[in-house]
Amino acid sequence: MKKWIVPFVCLFIFSNLPSFAADAINAKSIRTGADQTEKYLPFLKGKRVAILANPTTIIGKVHLVDSLHKLGVNIVKVFGPEHGFRGNASAGVEVADEKDRATGIPIISLYGKKNKPSKEDLADVDIMIYDIQDVGVRFYTNINALSRLMEACADNGKELLILDRPNPNGYLVDGPVLDMKYRSGIGMFPIPMSHGLTVAEFAQMANGEGWLANKVKCSLRIVPVANYNHDMPYTLPVKPSPNLNTQQAILLYPSTCMFEGVYLNHGRGTMYPFTVLGSPELKGIYSFSYTPTSIKGMAEKPLFMDQECYGLDLRNYDVEKLRKSKKINIGWIMELYKAHPFKEKFFERLSDQMNSIEVQIGVGEFRQQIINGVSEEEIRKSWEPGLSAYKEMRKKYLLYP
After folding, report:
1. DSSP 342
2. Which of 157, 195, 160 is nearest to 176 (CA)?
3. CATH of domain 3-238
4. pLDDT tens, 157-188?
5. Where are the domains of the chain?
6. Who wins on pLDDT, 20 or 64?
7. What stretches pass through the bilayer (predicted)?
8. What is the mean pLDDT of residues 100-111?
9. Which site from 194, 198, 306, 356 is most exposed, i.e. has the minimal number of CB atoms within 10 Å?
C-alpha cells in the first residue's frame, strides 16, 4: 500500500486567545482539500479521472465536476452515492445510471443495482477522486460508500485521491461502539455513533485496521484540510443531504438520529428534520405540535404522515451544550420513553420507516436499559470499555489536532 499526503501548512493565528475565539477566527481561513487545486491539478494532468461525488463536492459555490471539466481535466465518469450525484433522490431510494445534463459525463449509481465500481467501470480510469462532505456519524452512509470504493480501487490497482473536508461534529467522540453482530447498511465498522474523524482519517483507519474486504489495502493520496482542527466550529456551505438541511439538524444529528429506531417521528416530512420529535400519542403530554406531510425529495411517506404529532421542539436548542459536554444527548430518548402512554409500542418496528433500536444504536442492551429506567451514568458506563479503546486507536490515524 502507498499513501501520499500532499504537503500543507496549518496556520494557527492568535494562539493566545481563548480556544473558541481562536477557532472561530481560524474557521474563516479553512481551506478544504478541493479548494486547494494547486495541490492536485498537476497530478491529474494527462490522466483519465473518475469522481465519486454528490452536491457537497464543491469548490466555492461550483461543483468540483463542473470546475474540473471547465479546466480541461479528463473526467471519464462520475459515481453517485445515496441521494445521487446532484442530490435529488430521497434517502433509501435506489438511484439509476444516467448522463449528467450539464457536462454529458456518464453517471454510474452506487446506490441501486450495485454498491461499488466494477472492474469494467474502472478499466478506463487512471485515478479515482473521493470528495464528499461527511457529518461524522456512524449511521451516515457516506463512509460505507468510501470503504467500498477503496476496495474496488485496491482490487483493480487504482490510486484513490481523497480531497478531505472538515467534520462539523469533529469534536464529538461518543456513543457505543458498534457490536458487529448488528452490522448493517447504517453501521459497518466497529466505531462509535459519533466517530470524530474526517473522511481521510476514516480511510486511513479502514486501511490500517484491516476493515476492507479480504483485508486489502487501498493506495491513498490525501489533500488534507488547511487551517483546521477537530474542535473548530464549522458551518457547512451546502446541506450534506436532503434531510440535513440546517446547521442545527447537522449538530443534533448524532443525538436525534437514534430516533429512527423508535416509534416516533423525528422531523421527516417537515422542513426541520432531526430537530423535532413527536407522536400523535403524546397529545396532552406535550404542547408543541407539528404535522409531517409528504415532501418530494425529502420524505415521500414519513411516519405519522398527515397526523398532528406532539413532542419536543429542538430547533432553538443551544447546541453549545453538546460541544461543552462532548456527549451525545440520550436524555431526550429517556424522557420520551417515560412520557409515552403506550410503552409497548415505543421500540416495536410498527413502520417501514423504522430500524430496530439495536441496529440503529449498534448494541443489544440499550432497549432494556431504557425500559428498566437505568441511569444515564450507568448506560454510559456500559459504553466505556469500547469507547476508550476506540479513542486510543483513533489517535494513530488523526491528520488534525
Report:
1. -
2. 195
3. 3.40.50.12170
4. 999 999 999 999 999 999 999 999 999 999 99
5. 3-238, 247-388
6. 64
7. none
8. 87
9. 306
